[in-house]
Fold these 2 entries.
Entry 1:
Amino acid sequence: MDLKRGKVELAHGGGGRAMAQLIDELFQQAFENPWLRQANDQALLTRPEGRIVMATDSHVVSPLFFPGGDIGSLSVHGTINDVATSGARPLWLSAGFILEEGFPLADLKRIVDSMAAAARAAGVPIVTGDTKVVERGKGDGVFINTTGVGVVPDGVEISGDRARPGDRILVSGFLGDHGVAIMSLRENLSFSTNIESDSAALHELIAAMVENAPDIHCLRDPTRGGLAATLNEIARQSGVGMTIREDDIPVREEVDAACELLGLDPLYVANEGKVVAVCPPESTERLLAAMRAHPLGRDAAIIGEVVADEHAFVQMETSFGGRRNVDWISGEQLPRIC
Amino acid sequence: MDLKRGKVELAHGGGGRAMAQLIDELFQQAFENPWLRQANDQALLTRPEGRIVMATDSHVVSPLFFPGGDIGSLSVHGTINDVATSGARPLWLSAGFILEEGFPLADLKRIVDSMAAAARAAGVPIVTGDTKVVERGKGDGVFINTTGVGVVPDGVEISGDRARPGDRILVSGFLGDHGVAIMSLRENLSFSTNIESDSAALHELIAAMVENAPDIHCLRDPTRGGLAATLNEIARQSGVGMTIREDDIPVREEVDAACELLGLDPLYVANEGKVVAVCPPESTERLLAAMRAHPLGRDAAIIGEVVADEHAFVQMETSFGGRRNVDWISGEQLPRIC
C-alpha cells in the first residue's frame, strides 16, 4: 500500500485483502491500543463504575484542514466534549470513516495521525472502527463519525432542563474562533492567518469545574448555531428565559472584525473548544475561579442570568444600552462547519 | 416542515430552528424513548452489569431501498449483530445521519420509520443521534452510522483468535441472499423479485446459542467479503487453517443461479442475517440443535473443521471431489453492499 502517492480505491471498503491492509497499516498503527488489537468486529472493554453516557457526532467539515486543526482532531474533540458535558469521564471512542474513491492516502494518513494524536493527548482511546468507500462524486473526501462512551460519577446531575431563575450563565472563553477560522479559509480572506480554530478536548476542564462546583445545573458546548443556539436550547428545555450582557461576552477583536466582513454574528458562530455553564448563584465564583485556573478556561466570564419567562426568550442587553432578542437562527448560517 | 413533499435543506444541519424541527418532528417522534427525550448532546443511561462492548458501522448501501429491507433497518441490524457476536446483549444504539441537500423528506421519513421499527422489534433503543447535511453532489442521499453498546455476561469469552484445531465450523443458514438481492436490483435483473435480503437482528439467536453452548470459541457475521472473508479473518487471528465442504454450505438454488449470471461466487457475497460459529467438537450437536430451534437458525449447518496450519489457509473440498484454496478477495467484489 503506497501511503505516499496512493489513492483510496473501492477495494479499500470491500472486506477483502485491501481493506485488511488499510486497517493494519494505517488505522491499527496510528491508533495502536489493546482493544483495537483484539481485531474483532467490536471492542470488549471493562465493566465501568457509574452510569454510562453515550454521544455521537458525524464530521463533514470543509475544508478538511484548517488553522488550528483538521477533521481528524475535530472528530475526537467534538465527541469527547459531547460526552463530557454530561459531567462524565470519557472512556472510549469509536471511529467510522466514509471515504471517497480517489482520495489521496497521504491526506488520509495525515488525518488519521491527527486523530490518533488528539485521542492520545486526551487519554481516550479509539477502540473500534469501520471503513466504507463510496464512488468518486458520491462523497467529499472524508466523513468521520465518532461515538463516545463515558461514565458519570454518582451524585452528578447535569442536564439542559435544570436551569432555574437566578442561575448564572458562564462561558469558558472567547467565542467564534472556530467558525471564523473555517469561513476565512473558505472565503480566502487575507486575515485568515491570524484566527485559529479553538478545537480542543474539554473533559479535563469540565472535570475541574464539576469537582469545584458539583451543583452545576447545565453544561453544553456551543458548536453549530453558536452561543445563541445553545442558550435557546437550554431555555426551551428548562422552560426559563435568559438575559445576557453583550459587554461581558468574550469575543476577540479580530473575530469581531472578521464577522463584520463576512456578515456573521459571533453569537451564532460555532465553537469547538468552549463550554457554556449554568449554575446556582452561590457556586458562581468558585466555578469561575476553577475555570480560570485551567488553561482552556483562562478567559472564562459570567455573561448573564437565568430569569423566569414562560416564553423561554433569550434576551441581550446590548453595548448601546438597548435590549434585543437573541433568537434561534432559522436558516443555515455556516454549512459544514463541523 | 413538509414531510410529504419537502426536501432536505442545508438549514436542517445548521444547528438552528430547522434542525430542531427535523429532530422533534421526525427523529424524536419515530424513535420515541426516555433517553432521546433527555434532548441533551448525549444520552445518560444506566450502570450496566458486565463488561462493555462497543461496535460501530457506517452504512452507505446503494440503492437505499431493496427487497427485504432498506438502509434504515440494515443500519440497526448490522450494528446489533456486531455487538452480539461478542456474546454481548446489545443495550443501546446511537445514530448519525449524513444527508444530502435535496433528498426527499418523505424518503427520509420512510428510512427513519424503518430504523425505528427495527430497533423496537429488537428491543434496542436509539438513545442519541446527530444530523449533518452536505451540499448536493457531495453525498448520496443518506449515509447512516450506528454505534452500539452492549454487555457481555461474566464467563463468556468469544473472540476471533480462539479457534483451535478440531473445532467445528457452523453457519446459521443460507448464504448470499443479501448481496444477491442488492446486485439483482442494481443490475435490473428479472429474477430480482424472488431473492430478498436476509437482513435481521441476530442477538436473540446468538443468546440462545451462547446459553446452550457457553464454550463457543468464535462468532462472526459474514457481511462484506462473505463467508470467505470471515473464515480467513478468523484463521489469521487464531493462526489455524480451515477445511470446509462445498456440499454442506447452504446456498439457495436461486442465489446460486443469480451468482452464475452476475459472475459472483456465493462464498464472497455479503450476508446481513447470518452468523458463523466455531466451537469445540463436544458442543457441536448441542449448538446446532439450539440454532435450528430458532427461526433465524432453522437452516443451520456444520460446514467444516478447524485444522492445524501455520499458513492459515482456508481450503474447500469441492462438490467434484477436488480441493481448492478459498482466498481473500483482493479487489472490490460488491461496492456499497452495506
Entry 2:
Amino acid sequence: MQLRTGAASVVRTGLGLTQSRCAVQSLTVVPLERRIRQSKALYHNTKKNDSAWAAAVSVAGNIVNNAVTKAIKGTDGLPTIDPLRLVAGEMKFLTGNIRKLLGSGHPSLDRAAKYYTQAEGKHVRPLIVLLMSRATALCPKAPQRQQSTLQASAAIDTSISPLNILSDFNPSDATPVSIPADTDILPSQRRLAEITELIHTASLLHDDVIDHSESRRGAPSANLEFGNKMAVLAGDFLLGRASVALARLRHAEVVELLATVIANLVEGEFMQLKNTARDEKNPKWSEETLTYYLQKTYLKTASLISKSCRASALLGGADAATVDAAYLYGKNLGLAFQLVDDMLDYTRSEKELGKPAGADLELGLATAPLLFAWKTMPELGPLVGRKFEKEGDAARARELVLQSNGIEQTRALAQDYAEKAIEAISGFPDSEAKDGLIEMAVKTLKRNK
Amino acid sequence: MQLRTGAASVVRTGLGLTQSRCAVQSLTVVPLERRIRQSKALYHNTKKNDSAWAAAVSVAGNIVNNAVTKAIKGTDGLPTIDPLRLVAGEMKFLTGNIRKLLGSGHPSLDRAAKYYTQAEGKHVRPLIVLLMSRATALCPKAPQRQQSTLQASAAIDTSISPLNILSDFNPSDATPVSIPADTDILPSQRRLAEITELIHTASLLHDDVIDHSESRRGAPSANLEFGNKMAVLAGDFLLGRASVALARLRHAEVVELLATVIANLVEGEFMQLKNTARDEKNPKWSEETLTYYLQKTYLKTASLISKSCRASALLGGADAATVDAAYLYGKNLGLAFQLVDDMLDYTRSEKELGKPAGADLELGLATAPLLFAWKTMPELGPLVGRKFEKEGDAARARELVLQSNGIEQTRALAQDYAEKAIEAISGFPDSEAKDGLIEMAVKTLKRNK
C-alpha cells in the first residue's frame, strides 16, 4: 500500500528521536544533520544558530524527494485510505451525542449552544482522537494505569454526586445513540472525542465575538445570529458541560490535560491580538517573530489536538512511550494543519474556501506566509506594526507575499511538521487506524479548504 | 455566648430534617407544621398548595420571635464573633495566592486577569469555604475517602503531566506565600477557597460584558478598562486556570461539583435575561414567577457557595451526613445572601452600596421585592413584561415596591433561609468555626452593602 511505503521511507531518513518504543518493525534509522536541526525545539528559547527559521529554510529545498510529496502526487496510482471510513460507525453519531451533552431546559439556550453543531463541520479533532484510540489499542499497556482506565470507561454517563445536588438539568436521554459492539474504542475515548469538539466549538463562539466575525461555515456567525451576549454565554455553557463530562471520566491526568487546553487557547488568542511580542509600531524582522507565531500556533491550534491525542492514549492505558508518541503526533499535525490554513488564506478564493479569503490580513494578522516574505521585504514592517489598518495595506501586503517565496516556505514547513507527525507514530504496530493517522497528515497538506 | 444560644433555639423549633448525623448535642426536635411546609423543595416542581410562595408568606409574621432576629438586635449586648478573625491567617494570603495562580508570560494578560483581584472584595466565598473546612474537621470521617483526601492535599502544586507537555507557562513561584502551621485546614481546602474566588471572578468578568456594566467595586469595570475582547478572554483564562487547579486536587467528585457550577452559572445568567419562564409581553403574577426567580438565584448565586461547601467537606474526608449538611448550609446561605442583595438594591442609596442603587430595575430585572409587590399590584405586569424599558418605568416600579410589603416579605424569606442554614449545621460539634458559620448567616441579614 502506497502510504505504508511512504511512511516507512520518511522514517528511514529520520533521526527517530521521537519514535515510540512500542516498535514492532525493525527500522534502519539514519541520523541526518538536517533532521537533527529540525528536531530541536522550534519555540521557547530558540537560539540564533539553531533556529526555527534555519530549520524552515533548510527543508524548502528538499520537497521533491520526500515521502509526503510522493503520497500527495499519488505516483503509484493506488487508492488512498479514507480515515473517516475507519471510524465511520463512531463518527456517525458524534453530532447527536454532542447535542445530547448540551441539553438544557431552555429552548433558546439550546438553540445557541447547539448552533455550531448544525452545520456539518469537519470534526477533525474527534476524528483524530478516535483514530488514535484505535491505533494505540494495539500498543503495550502500562499495567498500573489499567484500573483507572477501566473505572473511567465504566461510569462516564453516571454522575459522581447525586443529580439533585448538581442541579444541572439535561432532558436528553443519557444513553449514547449507538455503541458499535465490535470496536476497540472505549466509551471514555468516545466521550473524549466529543469533549474535544465541545472545547473547540466553545473557542469558536468566543473567538467570533472577539473578532466580530460575521459568518462561520457558510452561515451567519452565532454572535450575528444571537448577539454577543448569547454567544459568550453559549461558549461558557459548552465549557461548563465539557468540564462536567471531563470530570466524569474520573481520570485526573486527563482532566488536567484538557483543562490546560482552555488556558492555552486563551493565551494563544491573546498572543494573536499582537503580531510581535512587543507589539511595536515599526517592527524589524527577526527570528523571534517566527518563534512568537509558532508558539501562538501551538497554543491556539496544536494544544487541543496534541493533548487530546495524549489523553486518548492515557485512557486506553497505553505505556509512557506510546503516550508521548501520541502527543508528538498531535502536536506536529496541529502545527502543520494551521500552517496550511494560513497558506490557504493567501492561495484560495472565497468561493473555494467557503469563508472570506485574505481574512487574516483584514483581521490584522501576520501569519507564516507574510512572516517568511517579510525577511526579504523589510517594507512589510510598518504594515505589520499598524496591523494592515491603512487603506490598501492588506492588498499591498498580499501582493508582496505572493511575489515572495513565503507561500512555498510555509508549505515546506507544514510538510516538515507532517513528516514529524508520521515519524512520531512510526513505531506503532501496523493497523488500518495507524494508516488512517498517516493519511490524516498527508491530507492536511493536500487539502484546499 | 449569644450565638450559641440563638442557634440552639432555632434548632429546637426546627423539624431537624436537614440535621447532620454528626450530632454531638442531644436536641429536642419539635416538628412544626410551619417548618414542614418550608422544608419542602422550594423550586423545581413546586406544587400550588405547598409552594415557595405559601412558605414565604407564612414566615413573614414570625419575624419577631425567632433567633436570628434576636441575634441581629444583640439584646444581651455580648460582642458577636468575627468570622474573618477565625481564618485570618489564611485570608491574609488569599489574594496573593490567587494572583500566583493567574501568572502568565504576558504583562497585559496579567493585568486584565488580575484586575478584579486588586480592589478589596469581600471574599465571602473563600471565607465560607475556610470556615466550613475548620468546622467539618471535627466531624466524623468516611473511612473509604481518607486515601483520596490525603492524595489530594499532598500534590496540589504539582502538575500531573510534565510541565513541558502542558505549555501553560506561569512565572509565579508555585509555593504558597504562607501556610500557617497550626491550622486544621488542608492545603487542598485552601486551594478550593482560591478556586471558588477564581470562578466567581470569571463570572463577574463575563457578566459585566453581558450587562454592559461600567463600574465594579468603585472602579471602572474590566470591560470598560480593557474592552469587551480582553474581558471575555480574561474570564476564560480564569476559568482555564481554575480548571487546572481543580484537576490537581485529584478528586473526581470535587472536580465534577465545581465544573457543574460553571454550567449552573451560565444557566442562571441565561434565566436572568428573562423575568418569567415564557418571557411574555404582559405576564400575570403567578407562583411560578417566584419559583423561576428562586431557581435562577440558586444557579447564579447559591450553586457556587453550596457546592464549594460540599467540596470542602469531601476534601476533609467527612462522612456523608456532614457532606450533605455542608451543602445545605451553603445552599440556604447563598439564597439568603442574594435575597438581601436584591432587597438592598431597593433600600440603600448609591453612596451606601458603593455601586449604583436601583440597578436591577435599570437592567430590566424583576427581583424578589418586586415579585412580592406584584402579587397585590397587578399593574406591575406590563412593566415586568417590557423589562422596565419605557421612560419612567423603573421609577414607577420602585415607588410601587416601596409602597408594598415586598421589602418586608423579601427580608422574611431571607431570614427563613438563614435559619435553615444555621439549622443544617446544628449537629456539628461546637467550635469557633461553627460559630463563625452561624455568624455569617446572621451577618448576611444585617449587612447593608
